[in-house]
Every structure is written in structure tokens, then in C-alpha cells.
């Protein structure tokens, strides 16, 4: 197994990689078969495809092999979901919104159906931030 790779810096996941990472974040760790079992029923990915994607995620440093028994490996995330979300959000703000987080929030509020509760939650978050 060797040393776990460093957490990847600045790397973004493809759609399929993100789908598999969401499963690993949810279940904590798993074999290829366990990850496949957690896929939505309508999602038809071959065993070899999932196995290949998990090895790619390992090479990229997003997962590590906890143990191996024969051909079966147990994979676990090396990057926490909140850590990846924050990194991805910083990337989005920097590239799409030219480094202006207020533009992101403005676009979100203007284009996303938000309930009164959602708006109150946002106001509470902003009020808390202003107090700091």
C-alpha cells in the first residue's frame, strides 16, 4: 500500500469521478462492488469502469487503498467533502465570477427559487459573518 498520496491541490473531478466520490463520502469506504451497489439502480456502470475510475481517483490523490485482499481493494477518500466543496467554490468564484463572491451570491439569489426559510437562513449567515 505504501504512503497515502498528498491531498490533491487544485484538481477538479469529472462528473463520473464526482459521482463515485459522493458515494465514498456517504459510505466512508468501500470495495468496487460496494460502490457499485450504492449507485442509483438506473446507473449502469460496468465493474471494470468503476474499478478503473477508483484507480484513477487513487492516482489523482482523492482516494487511497485501505486494504487489499486478493483482487479486492477497499477505497477511502483522502479529501473530505467540505474541503473539496470549498476548493471547487473558490475555483468557481475565481474563474467565472472574476474573484467576486458577491456576484456568485447575487446570481444564486436571482436565479434560484428560494423559500422564505432559505432567505432567512442566508440573512442569518450574513448577519453572523458581519458580527465576526
How is this structure best described in words?
- There is one protein chain.
- The protein has 132 residues and is mainly alpha-helical.
- Helices cover 58% and strands 10% of the residues.
- It is built from six helices and two strands, in the order αααββααα.
- The longest helix has 16 residues, at 81-96.
- The protein is elongated.
- The model is unreliable at 1-5 (pLDDT under 50).
Which fold name fills CATH's third level, the topology of the largest domain? Arc Repressor Mutant, subunit A
**Proportion in β-strands:** 5-15%
Radius of gyration: 18 Å
Biggest β-sheet: strands ordered side by side in the sheet = 1-2
CATH top level of the largest domain? Mainly Alpha
Estimated structural class: mainly alpha
Tell me what the CATH architecture of the largest domain is.
Answer: Orthogonal Bundle
Helix segment tally: 6
**Structural domain tally:** 2
Give start-end ranges of low-pLDDT stretches: 1-5
**Overall 3D form:** elongated
Number of strands: 2
Major sheet: size, sense and barrel closure? 2 strands, antiparallel
**Range of helix content:** 55-70%
Head-to-tail CA distance between termini: 44 Å
| Average predicted confidence as pLDDT | 90
CATH superfamily of the largest domain: Winged helix-like DNA-binding domain superfamily/Winged helix DNA-binding domain
Order of helices and strands: HHHEEHHH
Amino acid at each position: 500500500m505504501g504512503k497515502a498520496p498528498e491531498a490533491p491541490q487544485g484538481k477538479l473531478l469529472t462528473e463520473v469521478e464526482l459521482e463515485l466520490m459522493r458515494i465514498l463520502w456517504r459510505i466512508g469506504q468501500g470495495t468496487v462492488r460496494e460502490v457499485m451497489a450504492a449507485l442509483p439502480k438506473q446507473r449502469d456502470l460496468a465493474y471494470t469502469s468503476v474499478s478503473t475510475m477508483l484507480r484513477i481517483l487513487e492516482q489523482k490523490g482523492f482516494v487511497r487503498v485501505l486494504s487489499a485482499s486478493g483482487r479486492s481493494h477497499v477505497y477511502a477518500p483522502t479529501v473530505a467533502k467540505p474541503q473539496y466543496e470549498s476548493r471547487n467554490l473558490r475555483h468557481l468564484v475565481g474563474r467565472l465570477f472574476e474573484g467576486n463572491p458577491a456576484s456568485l451570491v447575487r446570481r444564486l439569489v436571482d436565479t434560484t427559487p428560494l423559500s422564505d426559510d432559505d432567505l432567512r437562513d442566508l440573512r442569518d449567515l450574513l448577519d453572523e459573518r458581519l458580527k465576526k
